[in-house]
Specification:
Bound molecules: adenosine-5'-triphosphate, magnesium ion
Order of helices and strands: EEEHEEEHHHHEEEEHHHHH
CATH superfamily of the largest domain: Aminoglycoside phosphotransferase (APH), C-terminal lobe
Structural class: alpha+beta
Shape: globular
Helix content: 40-55%
């Protein structure tokens, strides 16, 4: 291992993240499931976001260590929204209160605001969202060719937009530094409809299977607030942009179908998504 590498500070489905040299930098090293091209794309996308003045970690260099592609970034000092959300749920589980406290509502609204800031950029060199989503759905094993064809037609029928989208706005990809949201993990950025990003967030909040380390009370609490989180999120995004829940809802089936191509989610979660997709497709025909 390279002498610059320090303690492991985080990880995700595609990578492990370590301290790098001084305290101010980290290195994100690809796992075996993530190739050189994907990491280069992330570096390019993150650079583009940085150059456009978006709140993202500064990217420093693309490197290769022991054959693993990696990116050196500015270290963001702060917690992910995931960590903050789990902390909130554990506290609520003890106190048995069922409202979402103001701080956590603020985290949800901040997510809507940072997405809106990202979506306000349009003149950027990233892949087409429609092509990316269709291509991913093409690889999915869980849907029939007819079902895929119906989803492609649905995508083609939706209004065309050309806005920068992050592609994976999950709670582990937003960090809070000095009260401000920072968006990390830009591998899946595309240009297209912001509704796809919003649908991605809604699908995660509505259907994610919670980790088994959480106590039953915390799981019950989270289950009881899923739809409230979505309401707070959409209200803030609609207030900022005029985009309505109905417009976002049309993207749920295509984005859920795309998610079936990801290797980071469990079979149980995929089967929930398949049921949701089929219910929606049957209403179309
Ligand atoms: N610039 C950074 N500063 C501090 N911590 C970071 C930074 N980048 C990543 N991390 C930590 O590492 C974790 C994993 O990073 P990241 O989300 O980029 O990896 P990933 O493997 O692409 O994730 P995913 O599972 O979403 O694909 C983050 O949730 C965060 O805790
Ligand atoms: Mg991530």
């Amino acid at each position: 291992m390279n002498a610059m590498i320090g303690e492991k500070i985080g990880e995700g489905g595609c990578s492990e993240v370590f301290e790098w040299g001084t305290a101010s930098k980290i290195i994100k090293l690809a796992r075996a499931n993530t190739d050189m091209d994907a990491m280069r794309r992330e570096y390019h996308n993150n650079h583009m976001a940085w150059d456009n003045g978006l709140p993202v970690p500064q990217p420093f260099e693309f490197v290769e260590i022991d054959g693993r592609p990696g990116i050196v970034f500015e270290r963001i000092i702060g917690d992910t929204l995931m960590k903050r959300f789990v902390k909130h749920a554990l506290e609520r589980a003890v106190s048995k209160e069922v409202h979402i406290e103001e701080d956590s509502q603020n985290d949800i609204r901040m997510t809507a605001r940072i997405l809106n800031e990202i979506h306000s950029k349009s003149n950027v060199n990233v892949p087409s969202q429609r092509e990316t989503i269709k291509n991913a759905i093409g690889w999915v094993n869980y849907l029939s060719p007819e079902e895929k064809e119906t989803i492609f037609k649905l995508i083609d029928s939706l209004p065309m937009k050309q806005q920068l989208c992050h592609g994976d706005p999950n709670l582990g990809n937003i960090m809070i530094k000095d009260g401000h949201a920072i968006m990390i993990d830009w591998m899946n950025a595309t240009i297209g409809n912001p509704e796809a990003d919003l649908a991605e967030y809604i699908i995660m909040i509505r259907y994610a299977i919670l980790p088994s380390y959480l106590p039953d009370e915390a799981v019950a609490y989270i289950d009881s607030i899923r739809e409230t989180i979505i309401k707070v999120f959409v209200e803030e995004y609609t207030r900022l942009t005029g985009v309505t829940y109905e417009e976002i809802d049309a993207w749920i089936a295509p984005v859920a179908a795309r998610k079936l191509s990801a290797d980071g989610i469990s079979e149980a979660e995929k089967s929930i998504l398949i049921n949701e997709i089929r219910a929606r497709l049957s209403k179309l025909s």
